[in-house]
Amino acid sequence: MREFELVIIGGGPAGMAAAVAARKQGIGNIVIFERGDELGGILNQCIHNGFGLHTFKEELTGPEYAERYSDQVKELGIPVELGTMVLDLNADKELSIISRTRGAETVKAKAVILAMGCRERPRGALGIAGFRPQGIYTAGTAQKLVNCEGVVPGKEVVILGSGDIGLIMARRMTLEGAKVKAVVELMPYSSGLKRNIVQCLDDYGIPLMLSHTVVDIKGKEKLEGVTVAAVDEKNTPIPGTEEYFPCDTLLLSCGLIPENELSKTAGVELSPLTNGPSVDESLETNIEGVFACGNVLHVHDLVDFVSEEANRAGENAAEYIKGKPASPGVPVEVKPGFGVRYTVPSKLYIESVNDSVHIRFRVTGVFKGAAIAVTSGGEEIFRKRGRIFVPSEMQDIVIKKDKLADVSGTIEVKVEEAAK
Description:
Blueprint: E1 2-9, H1 13-24, E2 30-34, E3 49-51, E4 60-61, H2 62-75, E5 80-82, E6 84-89, E7 94-99, E8 103-114, E9 118-120, E10 136-138, H3 139-147, E11 156-160, H4 164-175, E12 179-184, H5 194-201, E13 208-209, E14 212-218, E15 225-230, E16 243-246, E17 249-252, E18 256-258, H6 261-266, E19 290-292, H7 303-321, E20 332-336, E21 347-348, E22 356-361, E23 367-368, E24 371-376, E25 379-385, E26 388-389, E27 395-400, E28 410-416
Parallel strand pairs: 1-2, 1-8, 2-5, 8-19, 10-17, 11-12, 11-17, 12-13, 20-28
Antiparallel strand pairs: 3-4, 6-7, 7-8, 9-18, 14-15, 15-16, 20-21, 22-27, 23-26, 24-25, 24-28
Helix pairs in contact: 1-2, 1-7, 3-4, 4-5
C-alpha cells in the first residue's frame, strides 16, 4: 500500500492551490488525484475573461488562470496522477482508487483535502412537464460542447435560470450565431453577478424574464419549443400568463450541487444548508485530518475566493501533518440568522484561531442599505454596512481574534434591514 502525507482529491483550482500551499509549508509527500486528463477542472472550458483580478491582479481567462497554478504545481515538483478516479474514502483516510496506468489499488494518507468541486442540477431535479427530446442541455455541457468540441448545439435558444454559467452562455451562443430568445428566472432577482447581466444580456439585447419559469416542453424526438409562465410569490405558475417560445435548444442554469458522494462514504458530516461538509475555522471536517475547500464545500462566485480558501486548507492540513494538537475545548456554533442562508465555517474553536477568522455566507434576498451584524449572547462583535447585498455575491467578513475573546455558546450572523 502506498502511503502519503497528504492526498488531494481533485486537480481543479482548489486542489492545485491547496497543494501549492501545503508544499510551501514544507510537506513533501503530496499527491493530487485528478480523474480528468489535465489539471484545471472546469476552468479549461471557461474561455471568457474576468478571472484572477484578486489573486494575480490582472484579468485572465479560465485556462490562463489554471495554467498559472499548474505551472506552480510543476515548479514545486508536486506529483499529479491524471486519469485517476477515487472510488472510496473511509474514516481511516484510506482511499480506493483506479487508473489506467496502475489499475485498482488502495492508498493511505495522513491527511486528505476534499476538492472535488460541484456539478450542475439536471433536468430530472426540476420537474418540468413534457417529453425528454433532444436539445435540452445543462449550461455547462453546452459550454464544453462549444468551447472545447467546437459544436454549437442549436440555433434558437431559451435559457432557464440566470446563474453565471447561463448568462455567459447566452453571450457565447449569440456570438456563435444563435438567437437567444430569453433568459427565464424563477426568482424575482438574478442568481448571477451584476456584471454578467450587463455584459452578457444587456449588451446583446437579450431579455431577462424574472419571476417566470418553463412550465411545458413541446417536442418528442427533438425540441420544438417551450412554454413560459409568470409565477406568484409562492413560485406557483399564474394561469393566463403563458407564452410560447419556438426553439431547438433549452439550456438549464439552475444551480450547482457540491460533489460529496465520497464525503458521505467517509462519514463526513454534511450541512443541509450548503450540501457541503460542515467545517470549523481550519476548514477541517468532523473527521480528524480531512479538510474541504472550494465548491465541494460551498458554491463560490469567484475562482479567486476558491484559491484563497484552498490556500488556507493547504496550510492547515500542513499544520495537522506536522503534529499540531487537536482543537481544545468546546466549539462555538456559527449559525445563520435573518437574511443569511448559511455560514462557512459552522463552528469555531476560539483558541485555535490565529489572528482572525473568515466567515463566508450568502444572503437570502436583495437587501439595500442594510448591514451585516454578528452577535453572541446579545453582544455585537462585528458590523458591516453595504449599499446592496444580493444572493449572487458571496459575502466574506473577517473577524479579529480579540473580538472573539468573550464569545461562548453561539455566534449569529444576520442581516439588519435599513429603517423604512
